[in-house]
Every structure is written in structure tokens, then in C-alpha cells.
Automatic annotation (TrEMBL):
Cited PROSITE patterns: RIESKE (PS51296)
InterPro entries with a match to the protein in the record: Rieske_2Fe-2S, Rieske_2Fe-2S_sf
Secretion signal span: none
Organismal lineage: Bacteria, Bacillati, Actinomycetota, Actinomycetes, Kitasatosporales
PANTHER family reported in the protein's UniProt record: 3-PHENYLPROPIONATE_CINNAMIC ACID DIOXYGENASE FERREDOXIN SUBUNIT, FERREDOXIN-RELATED
Pfam families xref list: Rieske (PF00355)
Record keywords: 2Fe-2S, Iron, Iron-sulfur, Metal-binding
Source species, domain of life: Bacteria
The name this protein goes by in its record: Non-heme iron oxygenase ferredoxin subunit
Domain Rieske span(s) in chain numbering: 4-99
Keyword Iron on entry: yes
Length: 105
């Protein structure tokens, strides 16, 4: 698994998603409840950026239609979204936030 640096931990505000591009993928990075999560930034219901939504109770809400996704699993909590979005492994090394969007072979 290859990890890429996305930002400094000190640059992430609590409960404020940050959009980054990794290997052509839009990823929302979120610091909440003492952890950092990385989730695909595109809502599975519509082509909408999740990083523009709000974070609460370890979930990120799509600002357009209100579907909410678990930051740990990517599973939606209700309609209109019915499909999960991918989540990605995160490592913290010092002040660096590292995310992997590659699959192990």
C-alpha cells in the first residue's frame, strides 16, 4: 500500500472537511472525534462534493440532498443515497497526514 502526504495535521480544523486530489481521485479528509478519516469526496447519489457538507457524529452530510455517510465505513444512513462511498486508510506520521488510495495486489 502506498501512502501519500495530503496535508499537515495542524492544517485540519476539527469537523471541517478538506478536499484533496490523490492519483486523480477527489478525497475528503476529515479530523473529528480525535481521529482523521479519508472518504471519497463524491456522493454516491449525485455528482456532488461531500467536502462541502457538514460533519457531525463521525458522519459527513451531502449538502445537496441530505444523505449522510459514516466516515469509518462509507455507508449511507438514509435516502436518497443507497450505495456506500469508498473510505481510505489514513496514517499520521509526526504532523503529516498520509492517505492510501491504492489497493494491495
Amino acid at each position: 500500500m502506498t501512502y501519500l502526504r495530503v496535508c499537515a495535521l495542524s492544517e485540519l480544523d476539527e469537523d471541517t472537511p478538506r478536499r484533496v486530489e490523490l492519483d486523480g481521485l477527489a478525497v475528503a479528509v476529515v479530523r473529528t472525534e480525535g481521529e482523521v478519516f479519508a472518504i471519497n469526496d463524491i456522493c454516491s447519489h449525485a455528482n456532488v462534493s461531500l467536502s462541502e457538507g457538514e460533519v457531525e457524529d463521525c458522519r459527513i452530510e451531502c449538502w445537496l440532498h441530505g444523505s449522510s455517510f459514516d466516515l469509518r465505513t462509507g455507508k449511507p444512513s438514509g435516502l436518497p443515497a443507497t450505495k456506500p462511498v469508498p473510505v481510505y486508510p489514513v496514517k499520521i506520521e509526526g504532523d503529516d497526514v498520509l492517505v492510501s488510495v491504492t489497493q494491495e495486489s
